[in-house]
Amino acid sequence: MEMQRSKHENRAEEEKPKRRRQEHQATCPFYNYEQLQLLRDQVLVGVKDIEQLVTLGKEARACPYYGSRFAIPAAQLVVLPYQMLLHAATRQAAGIRLQGQVVVIDEAHNLIDTITGIHSVEVSGSQLCQAHSQLLQYMERYGKRLKAKNLMYIKQILYLLEKFVTVLGGNVKQNPNTQSLSQTGTELKTINDFLFQTQIDNINLFKVRHYCEKSMISRKLFGFTERYGIVLTPSREQPNLAGLQHFLQSLQPTVTKTPVTPVEDGEARVPRPASPLMHIESFLAALTTANQDGRVILSRQGSLSQSSLKFLLLNPAVHFAQVVKECRAVVIAGGTMQPVSDFREQLLACAGVEAERVVEFSCGHVIPPDNILPLIICSGPSSQQLEFTYQKRELPQMMDETGRILCNLCTVVPGGVVCFFPSYEYQRQVYAHWDKSGLLARLAVRKKIFQEPKRANQVEQVLMEYSRCIKCCGQAGGTVTGALLLSVVGGKMSEGINFSDDLGRCVVMVGMPYPNIKSPELQEKMAYLDQTLPRVPGQPPPGKALVENLCMKAVNQSIGRAIRHQKDFASIVLLDQRYARPPILGKLPAWIRDRVEVRATFGPAFATMRKFHREKSVPS
């Protein structure tokens, strides 16, 4: 952005040093209009992926980032991540115009969660203090050169930041890392209540937001801290080396750096932009949402730096309404969209879409009916009833029965078996229990055991070893007939991974992966739906239906990993008697629901499994 500016361009009033000679600025050699026009034409000749765009950019000495955007107006089809499509500011920045267009949203099973996620914002106490310190030093340096109106807005932002820190129980003048909070816990507020409690209800946040966008103050602060080496924290202990600076350093091929430890799933690490004010601007924008459509969560965690303010969007339809309104048509598509009631009620109806505009189409699967065996097993080999509720699932007899079921299944299923657990913690507990009881050793006689890693950079390695093991066992023969992969619902193996052919001849779902009902966010969402959606006679309340739908969407996404082409075959085993209940059965995809078999005891279920895999394993 710095290099795009012309060297003759005048700087902004507050940035222009008086008694200093203007520094020479280099213009970006890849941001040339003629070169970009040539690259645009090449982009439109044929479909290019990102790597090919980079290669073309190097050859044409034109930026592929801007070249691809120059091609958008002339393109007939634009493919982009739907996070970019659904966020209005990002959409406008990329030059995407929706008027009269047909929008196709693929893999839309998590569309509601995506809209909620990209419009929910969390800021930490540390970020608030850093932004206050940064902006205060900026004002002290340039205060006399700023227009009165600009100075007024900067003082308003400083006041907002101070009040945000105060409501968490801290002080902006002290180091957030050393500030202990007397009050801990989570508090949930409506937007209006939060504004009154923080005493900022007299400030026009719409005008503050407009000033931030127009003045680009957060970008100026980043340039200011980089130019003068300003320390962001009040303690003045370390220089600002975060964000873009680290990224630019990582691009230097000659510099050898210590590899960064990857972040694990369990670590709730908040992304820190180079200028913390960028993140806080998003929070201020969120506070302009209508009172009924969002909530603010105050999380006090012992120290100020660990505490946070989070805006939770309750009504994703307010952001989807603009897409629906502008487009000629919207197609929401996916392989596992069931249950679809969420899309109709929470997204389309709330966005003002008339019922007659909504056309629902669902088709069967390409595989023959006898290539799939969905089984619901209600009890195990020792007649233990299978009901993996939070209260029962950690009982030793439940974990033992799960192990015995898998031992039996692994004797009749060739190739790979993928077993999904509700959480990483429960998978760890079961694995440790099996290791202690000897069940793990029994399983290892028939299948080599793999576990889904928590770190994303290890997934590919585990999958390669899992695949190699199945291939080797199929060729070598012997007692080990394949591999068993222990995975987690909602983890890295439950979406986007294909366990086709021998990689997934059986998918086992242990229990029902209900979300944490004690989560303040989920409780507030349930209460919101109960208040806003009509109650249908004979149906559960909308809040309870949400919990069931979240669970079954996760189940459908996981069990769909096995059948990947027309000649594929697999068995699907659901271990929990609650799956046999009609309301739950009704939320399975039609191609599974129509063929599902419920077995009250394990003996008949095992016989059916053995017969299915014996027939399918014989070459035709």
UniProtKB/TrEMBL annotation:
The molecular function terms in GO held by this entry are: helicase activity
Q: Does the keyword Nucleotide-binding apply?
A: yes
Domain Helicase ATP-binding, by residue range, is 1-158
Q: Which cofactor(s) are needed, names only? A: [4Fe-4S] cluster
Q: Where is there biased composition of kind Basic and acidic residues?
A: 1-17
The record's SMART domains line, in alphabetical order, gives: DEXDc2 (SM00488), HELICc2 (SM00491)
**Its domain of life?**
Eukaryota
Q: Which UniProt keywords apply?
A: ATP-binding, Helicase, Hydrolase, Iron, Iron-sulfur, Isomerase, Metal-binding, Nucleotide-binding, Nucleus
Give the subcellular location.
Answer: Nucleus
Q: Which InterPro entries match?
A: ATP-dep_Helicase_C, DinG/Rad3-like, Helic_SF1/SF2_ATP-bd_DinG/Rad3, Helicase-like_DEXD_c2, P-loop_NTPase, RAD3-like_helicase_DEAD, Rad3/Chl1-like
Similarity remark: Belongs to the DEAD box helicase family. DEAH subfamily. DDX11/CHL1 sub-subfamily.
Q: What is this protein called?
A: ATP-dependent DNA helicase DDX11 isoform X5
Q: Which organism is it from?
A: Vulpes vulpes
What are the leading ranks of the lineage? Eukaryota, Metazoa, Chordata, Craniata, Vertebrata
